[in-house]
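Researcher: Last one for today. Full complex below.
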Amino acid sequence: MSVTVTRPARRAAGPRVDAGRPTAVRDSLPSRIAAMAVMAVATAYVLIPLWWLVVGASKDQSQLIDGNPLWFTDFQLFSNISDLLNYRDGVFLRWLLNSVAYTGGAALLGTLFAGMCGYALAVYRFPGREVLFNIVLGGVLVPATALALPLFLMFSQIHAANTFWSVFLPSIVNPFGVYLARVYASASVPADLLEAARIDGAGEVRTFFTVSIRLMTPALVTIFLFHFVAIWNNFLLPLIMLGDEKLFPVTLGLYTWNSQVDQNPELRGLVLIGALISILPMILVFLSLQRFWRAGLGTGSLK
Amino acid sequence: MRSRLRATSIIMISALAAAACSGTDTETTSGPGKTACAPTQGKVELTFTSWIPEIQSVVDAWNAKNPNIQVKVQTGPAGNAGTYQNFSNQLKAGNAPDLGQVEYDTLPSFRVQDGLTDLGGCDIVMKAKDQFVDWTWNQVTFGEQGSAFGVPQDSGPMAMFYRKDLFEKNGIKVPTTWQEYADAAAKVKQAGGYITNFSQVDINQFAGMAWQAGAHWFANDGNAWSVTLTDPATTKVADYWQDLINRKLVSAVPPWTPEWNNAYNSDKAWTWVSAVWGANTIATGAPKTAGKWAVAPMPQWNAGETTAGNWGGSSTVVFKGSKHPYEAAQFALWLNTSDEALTLLNQKANLYPATKAGAQLPALKKGVAFYGDQPIYDVFAKASEQVKPDFVWGPTMTKTYTDASDGFKAAVSGKGTLGEALQSAQQSTIATLKSQSIPVKE
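Model: Here's the assembly. Have a good evening.
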C-alpha cells in the first residue's frame, strides 16, 4: 500500500493492472440499457446545440428563420465564411489571432512559471516555503472575475489599460497550476536523481530544464490545458480592459456583435459562423491533449 | 466607499438645485458646474467610444477633413451589455474617453455619477439647440436651462407596422385608435393570427407606449427623485394590454429570437408597434413577407389625437475629465447635425437622426420596397414631431427594466398582472435609489 502512495503518478499514467482482484460480476441487461439511455440523452443534450450551430452556420440568413433548424437547406458555409472574413476588412481574423496570442501565449508562459514555481516549492527547503505555498493556495480560491475590476484600476494608474499587456500579463498568473506542479513534482521527481545531477555538475536551472521538466511533462500538459481553458473563458477581463477593437479576443468580439443583433439583424449570421470557427481551436487543443488531461486530472484528485 | 458615494450624490443634487435656481437670471455666466469651453491650440486627439459597428467609417470622414482634431474610435458591446459598466469603471479610474455614446434612458445614471461635462458653456452647442427635435433636446438637458449634457444623436419615433395584405384580405379596418386595435385583435385571432407579439422581456416597447399615453415615470425637482411607474397613464396602458393578454389576443414569444422572427415571417403576427429602426428588423427577420407590409401612425387613445411614443435613441456625451470639451463638442455636433455624417450613420447603422433637418435626408424620402414602395419615413418624421417632450428617465433604468420584465414575464404566463408588475418595479426602484444613496421621495 505504501508503495502506491509514494508513486501515485506512475500508476495513474500507466495502464492499471488489477491482477489480484477478480473482475466484478457483469451488470444485468436492463441496468446496462438504462445506463446507455442516460448516456445517450446526455450526449444528445451536449451535441444537439453544436449540431444546430454547424447547420445554422451553413445557412443563408433568411433560411435561418424558416428552414428546418436541424437540417441543411442551402449549403452556404463557404460563402458565409468568406463573408465573415471580409466583414470590415477581416476584423474577425484579427480577433482570432489575438485569442491565439492571449490564450496560447499566456498559457505557455504561465505553465512554465507555474511549473518552475511548483517545482521549487517541492524540491527546495527554505524558510517561508509553506507560507508562500499557502498564499498561492489562497489565490486558487479567488475567482478571476473578482480580480478584473481591481486589475483595471491598477492598469489605469500606470496608463496601461486598453493595451495588449493589460490582458496578457494578468493571464499568466495561475495559482492552481503552481499547486498542481508542486504536488506532481514532489511525487515524480526523486531526490536521488537531483542529487545525481548535482554530483555530475549540472546547475539547478539546467537540471530543471533537462531532467525535471521531462519527468513533469504530464502535469505540465494538464496545467497548460487548465490554463488555456481558464484564459479562454475569462471573458470579463478583456471586456473591462479593452476598448480598442484591434485588441479584442474572439470571444469579446462575437459578444459585441451579438449584443447588437436587435438593431443590426444582419450580424446574426456572422455571429453564428464566427462562433463555429471560434470553437475550432478549443476542439483541436482538446483532441490532441486529452490523454494527458485525463491522467493529470487523476493526479490532482489523488493528493 | 459608501459614505463617499452618498456625499457625491448629495453634492450632485445640490448642483442640480443650484442650476435650476440660477437658470433664469444667469444664462451666460459659467457656474461651478459648467466647464469652460475654450478651443485648444494645436493638434488635439480625442477618443470616442461607440458600439455602432460601422462607426469607424463615419469617423474617418471627419478625420480626413480635420487634421487638427483627430478622433480615435474605441468600441465594445451595446451599452447595457457592458459598455456602460465600462464607462463607470473608466470614470472611476480617470481614463474615460473624451466622447461616448449613451442612450437617453441611461443619461440620468451618468448625470448622477457626475460623469458628464455640461456643454452649456459651449456656445456652439447652445446655438445648435434649435436644430434638434424638441424632445430629444430635453433628454440631454434634463430640463435645465442653459445646460446640455450631450448632443442628441438618434431617435426612435414609433409607428405601427402592419400586414397590409392580410388586413385587406380579411376586410379588417386598419386601426387608428387603441380601441379599434383591440377590436381588430379579436378579428385577427378569428382569422388565425395574432395582432402582435407582446414584448414581455424588452420593457422599452411598453415604455414607448406609456410615453405616448402621457406617462411620467420619473421626475427630479432638484432635491430628490420621484418615481411614478404606476401613474394613471401607465396604468391605463398596462390594463389595456393585460386585457388583450387575458383574452389571448396577443402572442408572447421572447423578442429578438428566431422564433419571434418566424412569427412575422409566417403570417402569425400581423402588426408591430415599434420604432423607426424596426423597419430593418422586420425586413431582415421576415424576408418572405417582402412587399406586404405598410406603416401607419401609432393608434391613438382618443380619436383625432396625434401623439407618438419613442423607443430608443442615443446621444453623444463628453465625459468629465475630457481636456478638450470644445473640440469634442465640435465633433459631436458634426456627427449629429451634418448631412454628411447623418447620411453615413443612416446608411451604415440605420440610425434615424434627431435633428429636424435630418428627416429631409434624400435616403429618408424614398419609398422602401419591403413596404410596397411606401415612403415609410414620412410617417416616422411626423411621429418624431408628435413625441411628448417631457418624459424623464430615472437614474437606475437597468434595474427598473429587470424588475419590470420579471413581473411582465410572470403576467404573460398568467401569474399576476402587468399592473402588479409595475407596482413591484416601483417599490424596488425606490429601494435601489435608496441603496445608492440617491435622494428619493416616497
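Chain A touches chain B at residues 61-62, 64-66, 69, 88, 149, 152-153, 156-157, 159, 161-162, 239-240, 242-245, 252, 255-257, 259-267 (CB under 8 Å). The CA atoms of residues 83 and 190 of chain A lie 56 Å apart.
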